[in-house]
User: Fold Threonine synthase from Aureimonas fodinaquatilis.
Amino acid sequence: MKYVSTRGTAPRLGFADVLLAGLASDGGLYVPETWPGLDKATIAGFAGRPYADVAFDVIKPFVGGDISDQALKAMIDDAYGSFRHPAVAPLVQTGANEYVLELFHGPTMAFKDVAMQLLARLMDHVLAERGQRATIVGATSGDTGGAAVSAFAGSSRTDVFILFPHGRVSPVQQRQMTSSGADNVHALAVDGTFDDCQALVKAMFNDTRFRNASALSGVNSINWARIMAQIVYYFAAAASVGAPERKISFTVPTGNFGDIFAGYAAQRMGLPIERLIIATNENDILERSLKTGVYETLGVRPTMSPSMDIQVSSNFERLLFEAGGRDAEAVNRLMQSLQQSGSFTIPPETLAAIRAGFDAGRTDEAATSATIRHYNDSRAYVLDPHTAVAVSVAERHRGDATMIVLGTAHPAKFPAAIKAACGVEPALPATHADLMTKPEDFTTLANDVGQVKQFILAHSRAAQAGAAA
Ligand SMILES: Cc1ncc(COP(=O)(O)O)c(C=O)c1O
Ligand SMILES: N[C@@H](CCOP(=O)(O)O)C(=O)O
Assistant:
């Protein structure tokens, strides 16, 4: 399996190189050169099988021959052995034909763990085989950071630098990033928004000298391996409720578009999905884009679903590439326009292709609270605010297909919002009982790429080894 960049000029790479590259060298995102297919019998056969077995079958074609089957299987088993629920991603029925897919039973209580636990093992494996170290950078609006810290803490081959928007993540999310005590973890509180943090990460990748000097690698969903691991739960969940014979739609709380792009990838691999529904909070760039055809960034508004407080939705570029017939030049033009003017107009045929598979809806703060309250009162089920955004959108997009809403975080990560909405203060799982009393360690930095690079060069063992060589 080879991978190509959405911007067309970066080298075609195999899986192990894409895994370590993160962002492509032309600024684009890697996608598989061709989509592997799974036939109907294979998909139906996923029902009732252990999650790790489904993961192996879905992931194996993307890895090609770069990692042996035995090593891949061992890493998958180990990654999902760290989850608190034996099913890894259980489906909870919430209505006659409605389910919440609980993706928050991993070590940091958000769906990011599903991919990050495997990504860390894959990276360590490839780095060990090559005798290399890497400098890992990540931007987070709250959950990717904690998941990365948990997955990479103590790894001898990586130093991890997580940029988070100072004062814009929940206290639980912050502690998960700042209290690991691991020497190879650096939490950086940036004076800015998540979009600023993500722009800093991309600027570091686009500086070839810095990138090479520090052996830079990324853990955001710009890294193909993150998306790859997230495809699995679409197959597992759909098969468990009767796919491929039963019609199924998914509603996905969306920010950086990685999670829903994984659903699109599952569809391209043969999973019949009726509709993929993008659910946004008041940071509704994707909902506006699908409605008007104009992708236009406005200021970020802080909401009670902070992990979705995003305007520049990185993985939308992957969809533009696919829906536009893999026209890398067109993607380049759109991305240049975004950089210069903060907006672009989606070409009409591309927009039509997107609308053929996707719907989008927005939920404001009052409706998010009302949904949390309603689910608590009527079903004794406590939704986290991100999942509540999606449940509210799903209710407005009911068709005759079975609806699966992705439950992306545990409500205990956002206790203040839940308490305000329904009076309940969700408790942290016993595994996290001491989290909020652990000492914190983080560094505050300005929204300045020079300062961030300087910090990384001073603290990355890969950079220091490179400088000494
Ligand atoms: C809890 C939660 N829900 C939803 C999202 C949005 O997912 P994506 O960025 O893949 O669209 C995020 C952040 O990514 C998140 O942390
Ligand atoms: N919501 C995310 C933002 C980064 O998304 P990613 O999936 O690209 O890592 C977060 O919680 O950090």
